[in-house]
Amino acid sequence: MKESSKPWRPFTSNCCTTENQTILKNFSKCKPSRSDYSKNIAPLPSFRRLSFSDLSRSSSTRINEDLALSFGSDLCDFQLSELRAITQNFSSNFLLGEGGFGTVHKGYLDDNFRQGLKAQPVAVKLLDIEGLQGHREWLAEVIFLGQLRHPNLVKLIGYCCEDEERLLVYEFMPRGSLENHLFRRLTSIPWATRLKIAIGAAKGLSFLHGAEKPVIYRDFKTSNVLLDSDFTAKLSDFGLAKMGPEGSKSHVTTRVMGTYGYAAPEYISTGHLTTKSDVYSFGVVLLELLTGRRATDKSRPKTEQNIVDWTKPYLSSSRRLRYIMDPRLAGQYSVKGAKEIAHLALQCISLHPKDRPRMAMTVETLESLQQFKDMAVTSGHWPISSKSTKNGASNNNKVKTRAISANQKQLAPVRSKKV
Ligand SMILES: Nc1ncnc2c1ncn2[C@@H]1O[C@H](COP(=O)(O)OP(=O)(O)OP(=O)(O)O)[C@@H](O)[C@H]1O
Ligand SMILES: [Mg+2]
């Protein structure tokens, strides 16, 4: 990966006031550790201080000036008209998907688009910005993804900030999200591919946590794991990412945000965020990979609606484990591997954050499972229900902030909701 040619510029000069410093005030000297998992990573620019406060008070021209100053040629500053042109005015024919913050459209940058920008397909996210929070998330994404480069993080190619419009332009991920593959497609993902995806996603998180100043991703879930043509997993959506605690502090205190079913219980109840909150969410995704069921699924019987509550009694016994394995695997999985993943998932979803493994350890464990070639026989599965044959699971588990407010991912206040 390329190394940034320009020295890092502080992001404070023009548009930042000292008040209301939020998301990225600690994004200084953020360099990856020299762990095994950062070998392929381009050295980051030598950060000085990248901080910003309430940029909503700055004009879009000023924001663009500051971003251009900070990122130089590393990020492309697109015009809205250019993005309209490459997506046929954000036509539904080019729609790749829609999330809580707007639609994502496919576009194509040809050779003549900009000097130095290679011809390639891209994904353009058109943020449905209502108020400050949407703008903050857009800016957080630009600043985090603009600086962090890793094979398991989706590449941000550029951004657009014109008047009230906020857009992001990413590398196009041909296989879409893990969520689509696991729950919506007719064809199931084979065991080895699930393991590959888990390893890739774990490496992405491990990279973030292993930085000199760790980054907490805060919204780890299947829809934010995107897949390249060879099923390499890449994390997208850094709008909620947060710098980890500084100095002797054990956590950062934040508003509780994220997605129900994935957020760690102690984070929901206290607002205390650590890298171990991401590890919990990773454990939930491991359970989804094992069972083919969504983190929360209201269409299931009450005792099966929450994947953590439902699977826990089955995870520590290989005899019982087979009853919760994804029927769409049709027995084609490594029994030893599944047992180890179940054990790992159980550790990741430990109630006490300290009992959860670090992501670097999780990567090692998962990689060691690739050697297992034993395949289960097809007996012992629960019959495939008509529902799961159709699309794997229902799609009604998205209980997130949209239910609370139109455009924020804020989880319900601690008092009113339980995970
Ligand atoms: N870079 C990309 N390449 C290809 N498809 C993408 C890309 N980014 C997003 N998508 C598609 O767009 C869909 C919507 O993504 P988006 O991140 O907006 O929403 P989400 O992850 O489903 O929900 P949330 O708002 O909670 O993040 C994804 O599920 C994926 O299918
Ligand atoms: Mg997303």
TrEMBL record:
It comes from the Eukaryota. This is Uncharacterized protein. It comes from Trifolium pratense (Red clover).
